[in-house]
Amino acid sequence: MLRKLKLRPLAVISALFLCVTAFADEKIGYGQGVLTDENNRPTGAIQAQEQYGELSARFIGENGDKHIYLTFDEGYENGCTSDILDILKAKGVSAVFYITYDYAKSNPELVQRMVNEGHTVGNHTYSHPSLPDCTDSEFFEEVIRLEQYVYDNFGVRTRTLRPPMGEFSPRTLKLAKQLGYETVFWSFAYADWRTDDQPSPADAYKRITSATHDGAIYLLHAVSKTNTAILGDVIDYWRARGYTVTALG
């Protein structure tokens, strides 16, 4: 039987976080933007990394980092995850899957397969709220309840946090850091979650591969049938250009 995490009482956590309220709490909706530098690296991600990196936030790796960091957000199951896992296994690639409580509870066999096949399970919060709207105590509940559930049921601990909708504030980054989490954003994402408005495979392939850059953190949604169809070819493209495709370290 898996042991429960020995969590500190909520009152103790709240006291520890009391100093965090001094941090600015303006809600920021992150997106990498469309502008890039001479190395094809999104300037929005670079600027965010410079501004918030000290709060254990990661938006992009270093220039010269020949890795593609592959992440998938799992809000609900659309029949694609098994195929994605098959492709990753065939290619020998690991990724991070950011899950919620509802996803984990509804799809335990898929989460267990992620663990068994060497992928990282990331924390996408318990109920997918906008984190800047949460009080300190609510933030704690959202992150730790999901962490506890994943540990109790799958035997692994979540250690990186993907904020729902990319919404954050300096306060939420500080809270996550004090919990021992790195808050992970992305340097590439597009509207692939629109299941009723999927691009053609050719268009999606061009959009994803043309954005390739050093230290890229790719956010793909596992509900996208188009992404799933082209994933193997995309991995081959990256590798042919000298990149190692992997989960975040």
Quickly give the CATH architecture.
Answer: Alpha-Beta Barrel
Number of domains: 1
Tell me the series of helices and strands, N- to C-terminal: HEHEEHEHHEHEEHEHEHE
Kindly identify the CATH topology.
TIM Barrel
Oligomeric state of shown chains: single chain
Gyration radius, to the nearest Å? 18 Å
Q: Largest beta sheet, briefly?
A: 5 strands, parallel
Low-confidence stretches: 8-22
Specify the CATH homologous superfamily.
Glycoside hydrolase/deacetylase
How many strands? 10
CATH top level class name: Alpha Beta
Question: Strand content of the residues, in percent?
Answer: 5-15%
Kindly state the percentage of residues in helix.
25-40%
Average residue pLDDT: 92
Mass-distribution shape:
globular
Structural class: alpha/beta
Search tags:
249 residues, alpha/beta, TIM Barrel, 5-stranded parallel beta sheet, 10 strands, 39% helix
What does this structure look like?
- It is a single chain.
- The chain has 249 residues and is an alpha/beta fold.
- It has a single domain, classed as TIM Barrel, CATH 3.20.20.
- Helix content is 39%, strand content 14%.
- It contains nine helices and ten strands.
- Strands 3, 4, 5, 9 and 10 form a five-stranded parallel β-sheet that branches. It has a three-stranded parallel β-sheet with strand order 2-8-6.
- Strand 3, helix 3 (81-91) and strand 4 form a beta-alpha-beta unit.
- Helix 3 packs parallel to helix 9 (225-240).
- The chain is globular.
